[in-house]
Amino acid sequence: MxxxxxxxxxxxxxxxxxxxxxxxxxxxPIGYDLDFNRDSILDIIFTSTGMWFGAFIQxxxxxxxxxxxxxxxxxxxxxxxxxxxxxxxxxxxxxxxLNSSATVxxxxxxxxxxxxxxxAYMGVQFYIDDLVHYGWVRISNPYPVTGGxxxxxxxxxxxxxxxxxxxxxxxxxxxxxxxFTGLMALIIRSRKQKAEQGVAPYVAQGAPSGER
Length: 212
Prior knowledge:
This protein is mainly beta. The protein folds into two domains: 11-164, no CATH class; 171-201. 11% of the residues lie in helices and 41% in strands. The protein is globular and about 75 Å long.
């Protein structure tokens, strides 16, 4: 299940979605349909067959790519109107590759693509009501094989405004739970130490001294 959140409640903000969708397969092809703003209009269709893993950009959208391959962008890369026009592409029939594998004599498997042994971002340009928006998709593939994990994605809700790759990221649910658990442990430990040192517990102003 995807987790959706925004980083602020202002007019223009970064809308973020946690996905964690594995795209590794040795059998039937698997896919993931990405809809940046949840308007039921697909923006990207990801497909993995075991031999290739790539993205089909929809409509008039474009992906930061070159030579038919999606560029693996580093955290902090600006995706927006200042991106050189030649860096945007739709690929062949809308398809752009993330990584692929081929078997060559005498039976060796060679993998190619920028999304191998890395976690990186793909930059995306797409449209909402004929207005251009910019977003990123984070893909993790720590192995030298075809496939990967679609971790999360985000986009800038204000038309024409760029977004920094990685901006708006919210820790995944498991990390958030660990952070909360660690914070509670620190609070409990602090209270125990104060009790051992004879420090009186804090009582809110105006509350009866017998209430805690």
